[in-house]
Write a structure and sequence with these properties.
The chain is an alpha+beta fold. Helix content is 34%, strand content 34%. A 7-stranded mixed β-sheet has the order 1-2-3-4-5-7-6. α1 packs across α3. It is globular, with a radius of gyration of 15 Å. The model has no long low-confidence stretch (mean pLDDT 96).
Length: 172
C-alpha cells in the first residue's frame, strides 16, 4: 500500500471510491433519495473540479493506493466550523468497500493525523453521520471522541444529522 498526495488524474478513481463507499456504507442510514441523486457522473465532476482547483492553505488530499489502484482517500484542512479556533479538520475519509477491514482505512487515518500535525494543528475535528455506528467505532478506535456538538446538515434538500468528533493530535 502506498499513501501519496492526490493528482488531477485521480479524479475518476476517487469518484468511484467515494460513490461506492457512500452507496454501500450509507444504505439505510441516509435518505435513499439522496443516495440516488449521488451519481457517478456528479462524483466525477466534483472530484475533477476539486483536484484541478486551487486548494486552501494547509489543505491536503491523500490517496491510498494498492497495486497502483486508488482505493481510499482522506481530505484534510483547516477547521471550517465557526468555533474551530485554529483546529484542523478531517473533511472526508472514504475507502472502497472491498477494503473495509483490511487496515487500509487505519493507515490512511493515521497518515491524515500526521499531515494535520505537520500543518501546524494540535487538534482536529470531523463530522460523522449520527447513525453511522461503524464509522463512529472506527474513529473512536483511533482516538477521536464526540465533543457533544450536533448539527443537521442539508445536502440537496435532505437533512442529515451529524455529530462532531475531536482529536488531540499531540496524543496520537
Amino acid at each position: 500500500m502506498l499513501i501519496r498526495d492526490a493528482v488531477v488524474g485521480d479524479g475518476p478513481a476517487l469518484a468511484r471510491v467515494h460513490f461506492d463507499a457512500w452507496h454501500v456504507g450509507y444504505a439505510g442510514l441516509m435518505p435513499q433519495g439522496l443516495l440516488d441523486a449521488t451519481t457517478m457522473e456528479r462524483r466525477t465532476v466534483s472530484w475533477q473540479l476539486t483536484l484541478s482547483g486551487e486548494r486552501t492553505l494547509r489543505e491536503n488530499i491523500l490517496v491510498a493506493e494498492v497495486n497502483g489502484t486508488p482505493l481510499g482517500f482522506a481530505h484534510t484542512g483547516p477547521g471550517r466550523d465557526a468555533d474551530a479556533d485554529g483546529a484542523g479538520e478531517l473533511w472526508a475519509l472514504n475507502v472502497a468497500p472491498s477494503q473495509w477491514g483490511s487496515g487500509l482505512a487505519s493507515t490512511l487515518v493515521r497518515t491524515a493525523h500526521d499531515v494535520l500535525r505537520r500543518g501546524g494543528f494540535d487538534r482536529a475535528t470531523l463530522w460523522v453521520l449520527t447513525g453511522n455506528a461503524r464509522a463512529r467505532r472506527f474513529y473512536e478506535r483511533h482516538g477521536w471522541s464526540p465533543d457533544g456538538v450536533a448539527r443537521e446538515e442539508t445536502i440537496r434538500g435532505f437533512t442529515i444529522p451529524e455529530l462532531r468528533y475531536t482529536l488531540d493530535l499531540r496524543l496520537t
